[in-house]
């Protein structure tokens, strides 16, 4: 991935450091802005995925970068706790997840895209989503070696579908690349990191935060469950919206596939994955629900931002 432009002094310092061979250094994040915080976290997290063009792979586990990341993660976690509260236990996690994901009181971005969005707005939507969809499923795969028994088997069952059963062009990542091609967008991995705002990066950083820390394995499962359990209706709307705008079968295949697959995944995620995990580790039930609440709230804030910009006649992208 090409390194993005800095959004403040902290991301500028990190980007400057990564352009060199690894060396000893420390950085004080100071009073970092929201944009600077989330771009810096995204840059640091990407070292654990596919890396950055021209950046030495030895930076991945550099003590100075890990110390900085820990301080930024503490700020991010504090923001999340302020937003959704601390993890709290629950007796019946699957039923609680169903209740959480059945709340339709938030802004309906999917409804807008289905019936009102212009082609340019749909392209913007796909631009935001490309940051995750071009590596779809990868953050949740970090949980596999951290689980056992039925929860592990259920997660693997979901991930097998996400990765197309081992067939490259059926991987959801590749299906979304076809959607971007149909929309005339750049399909290069991470091509649009520079133009998406912090509210988009925060959604991606959330799953990396949960995925890279074993202590948050329960939150990562709750995150995935909330994704799967709120996917079918919106993806049907996205597919229909793109067809309304002239999208062909190649362009809508990604959304149509999710309508079918996630209708099955939502039951597996709630009962077989999260339910089994909480039976094996009841002390982690609060973490599962915390992860679900975090993604639902951050998605709501992102939808409010995008719809707000569009209603004002403005772009939802930076620059």
TrEMBL record:
InterPro entries: Haem_Oase-like_multi-hlx. It comes from the Bacteria. This is Heme oxygenase-like protein.
């Amino acid at each position: 991935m090409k390194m993005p432009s800095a959004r403040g002094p902290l991301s500028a310092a990190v980007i400057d450091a990564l352009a060199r061979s690894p060396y000893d250094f420390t950085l004080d994040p100071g009073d970092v802005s929201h944009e600077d915080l989330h771009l810096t976290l995204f840059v640091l997290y990407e070292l654990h995925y596919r890396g950055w063009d021209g950046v030495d792979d030895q930076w991945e586990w550099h003590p100075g970068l890990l110390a900085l990341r820990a301080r930024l993660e503490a700020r991010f976690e504090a923001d999340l706790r302020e937003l959704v509260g601390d993890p709290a236990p629950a007796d019946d996690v699957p039923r609680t997840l169903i209740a959480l994901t059945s709340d339709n009181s938030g802004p309906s971005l999917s409804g807008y895209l289905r019936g009102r969005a212009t082609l340019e707005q749909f392209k913007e939507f796909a631009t935001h989503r490309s940051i995750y969809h071009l590596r779809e499923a990868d953050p949740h795969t970090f949980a596999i070696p951290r689980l056992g028994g039925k929860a592990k088997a259920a997660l693997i069952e979901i991930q097998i579908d996400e990765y197309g059963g081992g067939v490259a062009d059926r991987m959801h990542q590749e299906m979304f690349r076809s959607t971007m091609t149909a929309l005339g967008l750049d399909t290069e991995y991470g091509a649009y990191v520079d133009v998406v705002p912090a509210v988009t990066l925060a959604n991606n950083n959330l799953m990396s935060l949960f995925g890279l820390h074993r202590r948050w394995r329960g939150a990562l499962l709750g995150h995935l469950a909330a994704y799967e359990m709120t996917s079918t209706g919106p993806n049907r709307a996205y597919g229909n919206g793109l067809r309304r705008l002239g999208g062909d079968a190649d362009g809508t295949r990604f959304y149509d596939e999710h309508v079918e697959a996630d209708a099955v995944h939502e039951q597996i995620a709630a009962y077989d994955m999260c339910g089994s995990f909480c039976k094996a580790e009841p002390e982690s039930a609060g973490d599962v629900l915390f992860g679900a609440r975090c993604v639902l709230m951050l998605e709501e804030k992102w939808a409010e931002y995008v719809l707000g910009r569009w209603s004002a006649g403005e772009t939802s992208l930076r620059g």
